[in-house]
Design goal:
Elements lengths: L13 H7 L11 H12 L14 H11 L13 H9 L3 H13 L7 H14 L3 E4 L6 E4 L5 H11 L3 H13 L5 H20 L8 H11 L2 E3 L10 H14 L2 H4 L9 H20 L2 E3 L5
Antiparallel strand pairs: 1-2, 3-4
Helix pairs in contact: 7-8, 7-13, 8-9, 8-13, 9-10, 9-13, 10-11, 11-13
């Protein structure tokens, strides 16, 4: 989790506090100048001073162009005025600005420049924009900001299983990262759940899959969870079966109907959150087979 959160004035009213915690657009107006300064500081050449203006680190600008497949007008060699380079980035709009920020962030060694990462973290958190700094991977990256509580559940699930955790982490990045890939998010979500569920549900199957686990739980009928149950309105076995079936069915475009439409981003994000719940449940022992039939 990030160290910094939205700043709440000591005399803020309840209405003001509620407004401060609303997730906002990518670049709120009062954040724009500060973000531009952060980008300029990262792109500024530390080894060249030419006349009266700052020069961009040409090698780094070339890397930005290649990685993001954009043209910033950088020459093959010589000098590139810093203002011109940053102006070319801003001329391409908000998405490119944030992608450049994400790339520059990913190139920072957290052990060498922690304050550089922290300064961007503070800026994004205090502005409560739609992106935040994510430190859960090997490098810092931008990720979508979710309402408080949702991400904590996912991080708990990622840490709950040594085998499934890395797959769930990849699914989360594909679903909520700056450049989401819905199909990949869905695939890794299913793989993560499959890895933690099949050893419990169908340990003796020669080549177990999530589809096998769905069928086993449906047919065995005696699986339970730790949720409080309201009579027979939602039998535990039915709940577990339907959750797994829902996740598995989301991959119909892979294993049932090759002509099916791939998932939308919204669908993929919902399935990844469902996967986090299931990984957490099965890893913690919250789901188990009835004692009499085990």
């Amino acid at each position: 989790m990030n160290e910094f959160m939205v700043f709440v004035p000591f005399d803020a009213t309840d209405d003001e506090i509620s407004a401060l915690t609303v997730v906002r657009e990518a670049i709120p107006p009062e954040m724009e100048a500060s973000l531009r300064r952060w980008i300029m500081d990262r792109l500024r050449s530390q080894s060249m001073v030419v006349l009266a203006y700052d020069v961009a680190d040409l090698r780094l600008v070339h890397e930005v162009q290649a990685a993001l497949r954009i043209n910033l007008g950088a020459p093959a060699d010589g000098y590139l005025q810093l203002d011109r380079a940053v102006g070319a980035i801003y001329a391409k709009g908000v998405q490119v600005i944030m992608r450049v920020t994400d790339f520059l962030l990913s190139r920072i060694d957290p052990s060498q420049e922690p304050e550089t990462i922290a300064s961007l973290t503070r800026l994004l958190d205090w502005s409560h924009c739609k992106y935040k700094v994510d430190m859960s991977g090997p490098t810092a990256r931008l990720a979508a900001r979710l309402p408080e509580g949702i991400e904590e559940v996912a991080q708990t699930a990622i840490g709950s299983s040594q085998e499934a955790g890395p797959l769930l982490f990849k699914a989360w990045q594909y679903a909520f990262g700056l450049t989401p890939q819905p199909a990949e998010a869905m695939d890794f979500a299913v793989k993560a759940v499959e890895l933690v569920v099949t050893p419990i549900v169908c340990p003796n199957h020669p080549s177990p899959s999530l589809g096998n686990a769905v069928a086993y739980i449906r047919d065995q009928g005696n699986w339970a969870h730790n949720l409080r149950v309201d009579g027979d309105k939602a039998p535990p076995n039915t709940t577990i079966h339907h959750l797994l079936q829902t996740l598995w069915a989301g991959q119909h475009y892979r294993h049932v109907d090759q002509n099916a439409v791939p998932p939308t981003l919204g669908q993929a994000q919902a399935h990844v959150q469902l996967a986090a719940l299931l990984v957490g449940w099965f890893s913690s022992g919250a789901v188990k087979r009835g004692e009499a039939d085990a």
